Amino acid sequence: MLKLSVCEHLIPGDSYEKKFEVLDTNKIDAIDLDGNDLARKYDTLVEVMKISPVRISAIRTGYRGCLLDDNPEQRNLAVGDIKKLLDYAGKLNAAGVVVVPIYGAARLPDLHPLKGQLQVEEEMLTLLLSTLAEYAWKQGTRVLLQPMNRYETHLVRNVNEAVYYVNRVDHPGLRIATHVFHMNIEEPNFSDPFTTLGSMLSQIYLSDSNYQSPGYGHLNIKHVFDQLQKNGYTGYVTLDYIPSDKLDPLTELVSVTKAMYNLWW
């Protein structure tokens, strides 16, 4: 069964009440939350969820700093903010908090001949992900490590690299979130990665090859769905795309939703 979710910014409505109503009306199971200002939004979400069947799939964005910054204050800021989001994820019964370790080039020092820059990054990231995974598990949720393409980060760019860190950390509080847009750039195909991921995959984000909604690029979404089903995926499939400038948001969302359910079956 397809469990469909939609990123918050794509859902029409100026309140959570209206957004949840749109999702419920169109048989969409969950909302993927923007973590920014979540402390202010939390009470409203709790009240809306009492009367709506719509759930929270995951939390993305909303933390400051960088896990791999050369400034320890920025690393601590990232860890602290991610922990706060994990608190909310646990309370809201979300699958987890999506984490991108770093954007852009490396910032930590090269300590050659003691340690090269990559080794320093790997050890730092393993340590911090271990800390966050243990914390997440205690809150009843997970850290979801997301690979990004080579144009946005230099580290954790594909499924194999994400799996490497999950294996290094070796904790049930760390799993993986992937986005087909980034996979289309970094992966050789859309078959092997899902086999490699197996039960490590906890969340998948969906757009087309150009980051527009499915159907406006060249990705074979049906093949992606077939691979997910073949490998026993039971998590959310979350729509995350750049809205069309030729359709109103609701029309596009309804159209994409119907297409996704048809393709899944």
Question: Could you give a quick summary of the protein structure above?
Answer:
The chain is of the alpha/beta class and 265 residues long. It is 44% helix and 14% strand.
Question: Would you mind describing this structure in some detail?
Answer:
By secondary structure, the protein is α/β, with parallel strands linked by helices. The protein has a single domain, classed as Divalent-metal-dependent TIM barrel enzymes (TIM Barrel), CATH 3.20.20. 44% of the residues lie in helices and 14% in strands. It has an 8-stranded parallel sheet with strand order 3-2-1-8-7-6-5-4. The longest helix is centred in the middle third of the chain and has 22 residues. The protein is globular and about 60 Å long.
List keywords for this structure.
14% strand; eight-stranded parallel beta sheet; 44% helix; 265 residues; TIM Barrel; alpha/beta; 8 strands
So how many helices? 9
Average pLDDT: 97
Helical content class: 40-55%
CATH homology group: Divalent-metal-dependent TIM barrel enzymes
CATH architecture: Alpha-Beta Barrel
What fraction strand?
Answer: 5-15%
CATH fold-level label: TIM Barrel
CATH class: Alpha Beta
Task: Please give the domain count.
Answer: 1
Residue windows where pLDDT falls under 50 for at least 5 positions: none
